[in-house]
Write a structure and sequence with these properties.
4 helices, elongated, mainly alpha, single chain, about 80 residues
């Protein structure tokens, strides 16, 4: 039980640091993580066509930035990514 409390507190602490320092976690996310993020937010996930992983990741990043508001990104989505 104590471990769970510390784990939750640690995650809250990490989210606070990210928000306070204006760090953008999306820049270091993989294509799979961005896909999960978009699905959890119930957004359309673009399919990977004849493109490299880097190009597809950039496309997912563009969709993430264009469809998720900054406030949503910094609270709900960041918390779900590290959970």
């Amino acid at each position: 039980m104590i471990v769970i409390v510390y784990r939750i507190h640690y995650k809250e602490y990490l989210v606070g640091l990210v928000i306070r320092h204006g760090i953008d976690p999306a820049e270091v996310m993989t294509a799979d993580e961005l896909t999960v993020l978009l699905k959890r937010a119930e957004r359309k996930v673009p399919r990977r066509r004849d493109e490299s992983v880097a190009q597809h990741t950039r496309q997912l990043l563009d969709v993430t930035f264009s469809t998720l508001s900054q406030s949503c990104w910094s609270t709900f989505d960041l918390w779900t990514v590290i959970s």
